[in-house]
Amino acid sequence: MTSSLSAPVDPLVGLDLGEGWTITAALPKAIGATGGNFSLGYLAGNVDGRKGFVKVINYGGIFRSPDPTRFMQEITEAYNFERELVQKCTSRRLSRVVLAYHHNSLPAPPAQTFPISFIIFERADGDIRGLLDDVGDLELAVRLRMVHNAASGIAQLHSIQVAHQDIKPSNLLVFNPLLDVGRAAKIGDLGRATDQQRAAIHDGYNIAGDPSYAPPEQCFGDIPTSFEQRRLACDIYQLGSLLTFVLSDVTMNALLHTFLDPSHSPRNWHGSYMDALPYVQAAHATALDELGNSFRYSVTDDMKNELIKLISCLTDPDLEQRGHRASRKANQPYALNRIVSQLDLLAHKAELRYAGATAA
Ligand SMILES: Nc1ncnc2c1ncn2[C@@H]1O[C@H](COP(=O)(O)OP(=O)(O)O)[C@@H](O)[C@H]1O
Ligand SMILES: [Mg+2]
Questions:
Q1: Which residues neighbour 257 within 8 Å (Cβ) at sequence distance 6 or greater?
Q2: In the structure, what pLDDT confidence band is assigned to residue 8 with cuts at 50, 70 and 90?
Q3: How much is the average pLDDT of 196-217?
Q4: Which fold has domain 126-359?
Q5: Which atom from ligand 1 is nearest to the alpha carbon of 210?
Q6: Which of the ligands is closest to the CA of residue 124?
Q7: If exposure means fewest CB atoms within 10 Å of the residue's CB, which of 49, 152, 208, 336 is most exposed?
């Protein structure tokens, strides 16, 4: 009776992917490269009990593309790039970057047109955007620990000469959702990363990642020439914007947009970024004041000031000022070690407070 009403089962469900992996379910939404819908998402299980998240290249998009050869080139290059990069991260055992378990291509199954090219990742329980939607009153300690985890993941990527460039809540994957404290997060979605050792199509884009999370210099069309200023400083800004979001539910970009006069907005500005900078800095200062005033956690003034100061230096609109001050003085302006330690300490303080409050 109900079978005619239920959705048809995806033909890939049940497919044997090799090495003990079988597809168990299809995810409803296409995924891939910041809205590019380059992949289809599936869940998979292994005979050894591991759970996987599978990205299958969406060759079928070729039928809807006005430029099929270009489309094919883009999706295969995007797939090959991500595959090689996740392999590199996995072989270097980067603990805060989502692992890949397996990848391969299989011949087209019966009644299918295209081969199945896939990457199987370790499966997270969701992303931090979804988690914050579901658990609005999530403890400060948990929020800060996840941002600390994100900073560690970015630092690990930087240590192998890779910049992520698309750090945002949906790309921070969360594990262990049932525990309050003890949740951990890892960086996912390397689809828009730049690897100094391997070229990618998006390396040439003014904005490699999602434009709504891009740092202000990129929004104003400024293209710094060095890897450090163009790529590493972008990750640092996005980490600061992530911290802003996790504390306040708004990104730094949304705040800047609110406080920037429309005539000085990237859309309407025709001059250089250097000329726009004083206006962006003023909007940034107002955004930080606003953030400080609307802070909704009961933390000591010291901790609040430290958090606002940290956000301020991570998201500084001036590339010459962005990053940790001590690292800048040590001639390593975009080094993340001090930022990671500071976030660790802040998360630790919040965890102690939380433990004290729950024990009372
Ligand atoms: N390893 C994973 N485990 C669980 N969910 C994942 C995993 N990787 C991605 N997702 C989910 O799928 C979404 C899209 O995947 P992502 O790799 O970010 O592709 P894109 O943003 O390019 O579409 C993520 O925001 C997350 O919710
Ligand atoms: Mg993503």
A1: 265
A2: confident
A3: 94
A4: Transferase(Phosphotransferase); domain 1 (1.10.510)
A5: 21
A6: 1
A7: 49
Domains of the chain, residue spans: 16-122, 126-359
Residue 174 pairs with which residues in a beta bridge?
Answer: 126, 185
Q: How many CB atoms lie within 10 A of CB 278?
A: 12
Residue 3 has a pLDDT of: 46
pLDDT of residue 244: 96
Nearest-atom index, ligand 1, CA of 170: 25
Q: In the predicted model, what is the mean pLDDT of residues 101-127?
A: 93
Angle of helix 233-248 relative to helix 301-314, nearest 10 degrees, comes to 140
Planar angle of CA 51, 53, 57, nearest 5 degrees: 145
Which residue lies with its CA nearest to atom 4 of ligand 1? 124
CATH topology assigned to domain 16-122: Phosphorylase Kinase; domain 1 (3.30.200)
Nearest-angstrom CA–CA distance, 16 and 97: 26
285 SS3 class: helix
A 10 A CB-CB count for 117 gives: 20
Ligand nearest to the CA of 97: 1
Number of H-type helices and E-type strands within the chain: 11, 11
Provide the token pair at 211: 């434009």
Q: Is the CB of residue 43 less than 8 Å from the CB of residue 52?
A: yes
Per-residue tokens: 290: 């606003």
Angle 25-31-34 from CA coordinates, rounded to 5°? 160
Q: Is the pLDDT of residue 297 over 80?
A: no
Nearest to 215 by CA among 289, 292, 283, 316: 316
Q: Which of 189, 212, 213 to mutate to test the pocket of ligand 1 (most atoms within 8 A of CB)?
A: 189
